[in-house]
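Many introductory courses stop at the sequence. We go one step further.
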Amino acid sequence: MRAFLSKHTNVQIHYTPTYSSWLNQVENWFARIQRDVISRGIFTSVKDLDKKLMRYIREYNKDPKPIKWKYDNPQRRYHQFQ
């Protein structure tokens, strides 16, 4: 990892706690793909799945929007530690 980071000085690693996967934007993206494509789809082959996933990604990338995350229930923040 250090060799990679020394060669790619523009990359920053941000660690999140294991109990806060909802902070991980990659997990949000995969959840969106799961919800919008995989769960709703009927696929005749792996190639068909690949084609439909790539179509979704291309369409999404035409008008991408940042994920605007808001913590709307401060009471839940401390629930797991009590």
